[in-house]
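Meet today's protein:

…
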Amino acid sequence: MDIRLERPGDEAEIAEVTATAFAKAQHSSGTEAAIVSGLRAAGALSLSLVAVESGGVIGHVAFSPIEIAEAMGAWYGLGPVSVLPLRQRRGIGGALIEEGLAQLRASGAAGVVVLGDPAFYHRFGFASDGGLRFGDVPPAQLQWLAFKAVTPRGEVRYHPAFG
């Protein structure tokens, strides 16, 4: 398996992987593939990585700019992250996340926010301390990873593609 940047022509495979990965997911909105397409169309898909095997896309992760009311610097939202169902639980999603975090850290980003299962994301260094808010999302589900000595606070605003 190789991880690389999304290339022109990957869009259809990314949409298929994303739709398939979230088709039976418990917390899916059913709009994850449309979110990725919307971010791409708006020029807000800051980092888009694919996992490729035998020439085909088997996984994808998106990072897009977010705003945090009381945080300085460039912050990004992680997600959606998707892996074909038959390839899940084999470290592909984790490898995509780790590569994305490494690239954003190297670019000088302030940090990354993710909305998801703390048991999964804490292994990458994400923390949830109740300092961030996003609608009625439980504080433990909204997690952050700072690349600089800063603790983000305040309301999180995602790109309109998230709906």
Notes: The chain is about 25% helix and 30% strand.
